[in-house]
Amino acid sequence: MDWPLFLTLMMGGLAALLLMGLPVAFAFLTVTLIGAWEVLGGERGAMQLARNAADSLSSFQLAPIPLFILMGEILFQTGIAHRAIDAIERVVTRIPGRLSVVTVFGGTIFAALSGSTIANTAMLGSTLLPNMLKKGYSPGMAMGPIMASGAIAMLIPPSALAVLVGSLAGISIAGLLVAGVIPAVLLSAAFVAWIVLRALVTPSVAPTEQLPEMGLADRWRPFVIYVVPLSALFAVVIGSLLLGLATPTESAALGSVAALGAGAAYRALTLAGIGRALMETTKLSVMILFIIALSQTFAQVLSFSGATGGLIGLIEGYELTPLQVLLGMILLLLLLGCFVDQVSMLMVTVPIFVPLSQAAGIDPLILGVIYLLTMEIGLLTPPFGLLLFVMRGVAPPEIGMKDIYAAVLPFVAIKLLVLAAIVWQPGLATWLPTLLH
Amino acid sequence: MTRLSKSFDALLRAFAVLAAAIFGATAVAITLNVILRNTAGTTIFGLLDVVEYGLLAATFLAAPWVLAQSAHVAVDLVTAALPTAVARPLARVTALVGFGVSAVFLWYAVEAAMTSAARGSMIRTALVVPEWWALSAAPLGFALICIEFLRQAADPPAGARTGGL
Question: Rounded to a whole number, what is the distance in Å from the CA of B54 to chain A's nearest CA?
Answer without folding.
Answer: 8
